[in-house]
Write a structure and sequence with these properties.
Helix content is about 65%, strand content about 0%. The protein contains 13 helices and no strands. The radius of gyration is 34 Å and the shape is flat.
């Protein structure tokens, strides 16, 4: 007997009529492998939903701190920006004067003098502090014996009160009975008036401030050094690189992001110097240590010219921002 076409096409179809669609009776229904069937969510959509939920959960955890940051950071900044365009007095009365305070700053010789003192101090303070922190971090990174003890010892000045540190260094710099001049006298060098000389007062304060603040940057740089893969330095050693070549060609490029962070932080501290100068020299001699923040302090809390003092603060903010952008341009970029 001749078999029909239907029998050849669907041998397992049983009694299925010709032209019937769908799986044969008894066959298991299959679902699309991409999960795009009815009632199901595609993997890409599920991934987006999961990431959105994780972002919302993270935002919920940081929301309290974020609110505090906005209120106590951006709030005072906006308030200072408002005060800088007013003539605000201690009584609470104020008058809108626009850019009057900024125009007044441009013609104020004391402002330019204090800005110059701040710039010179920052140029002295930042390289000294970073060099001291980097050198100490490298030594601690290579030292295994009592590393924790020395790390705490070098960090101890940072947690010391700035006023206490300034008083101690003022005693050290004393002309007659100071420790430094006593040591110089033993070497046959006459007494030096470190804080009374216009040319020595800023280097002296910068040295004291570097001793006080290098511990924090040291810990940051030490963490950066410890994060560098050991295989990289070992490969450079195998290739015949000397210690200085490894440090210059391998360590410093890999340490650049951390170094940029340290430079920005120390630059901000340098531009904001006030406490050490207030305690050690009171701005003298002849305003040789009269910083921009000292000028702001006198304008706001000595002469109660809060609008003018706020303008000084906004100018200081712009100066620090510009300096940070310059550092980002030359140091913060990723190496090629």
């Amino acid at each position: 007997m001749r078999r029909t076409v239907t029998d050849e096409i669907a041998p397992d179809g049983g009694d299925r009529p010709p032209g019937a669609s769908g799986p044969p009776p008894g066959a298991k229904a299959t679902r699309p492998e991409d999960g795009s069937g009815p009632g199901r969510t595609a993997p890409g959509a599920r991934s987006r939903i999961r990431r959105r939920r994780e972002a919302l959960a993270g935002l919920a955890f940081v929301a309290p701190m974020l609110v505090l940051f906005v209120v106590f950071r951006f709030g005072p900044t906006l308030g200072a920006a408002f005060l800088s365009v007013t003539d605000y007095r201690l009584s609470g009365e104020w008058t809108f004067i626009g850019a009057g305070n900024y125009t007044r700053l441009l013609g104020d010789d004391l402002f330019w003098e204090s800005l110059g003192v701040t710039a010179v101090y920052t140029v002295l303070y930042v390289p000294t502090t970073v060099a001291l922190a980097l050198g100490t971090a490298v030594l601690l990174h290579r030292t295994l014996w009592m590393r924790g003890f020395f790390r705490g010892l070098f960090f101890l000045p940072y947690v010391t009160s700035i006023v206490l540190a300034a008083v101690i260094w003022k005693w050290i710099y004393e002309v007659q009975d100071g420790l430094l001049n006593a040591s110089l006298g033993a070497l046959g060098v006459g007494p030096v008036d470190f804080l009374g000389s216009e040319s020595l007062v800023l280097p002296s304060i910068a040295a004291a401030s570097a001793w006080k603040g290098f511990g924090y940057s040291m810990l940051i740089l030490l963490a950066g050094l410890q994060s560098i893969p050991r295989e990289v330095t070992e490969a450079a050693t195998i290739d015949g690189a000397s210690g200085w070549q490894r440090f210059r060609r391998v360590t410093l490029p890999l340490l650049r992001p951390v170094l940029f962070f340290v430079l920005v932080i120390e630059a901000i501290l340098g531009f904001q110097v006030f406490d050490a100068m207030y305690v050690m020299t009171a701005g003298g001699p002849v305003r040789a240590s009269y910083s921009l923040v000292y000028f702001l302090y006198d304008s706001g809390f000595k002469f109660f010219d809060f609008g003018y003092a706020s303008a000084v603060g906004l100018v200081l903010f712009l100066v620090v921002l510009a300096f940070s952008l310059v550092q980002r341009r030359f140091i913060g970029r990723d190496p090629d």
